[in-house]
Write a structure and sequence with these properties.
The protein has 47 residues and is an alpha+beta fold. Strands 1-2 form a two-stranded antiparallel sheet. A hairpin with a 2-residue loop joins strand 1 and strand 2. It is elongated.
Length: 47
Amino acid sequence: MAKLYSKKRNSIKEMKPSAATISFILSYSQALKIVKVGKLTFDTLSN
């Protein structure tokens, strides 16, 4: 069993996001605002 988990798989490649993807995620997270009022949660996207 231990040998199955210790082998390095050839089919898995290292995934690196592009600069455009990182830029999109950062700009989206800066525009997203989450407001909690009591038990309710409101999220707004201000662009």
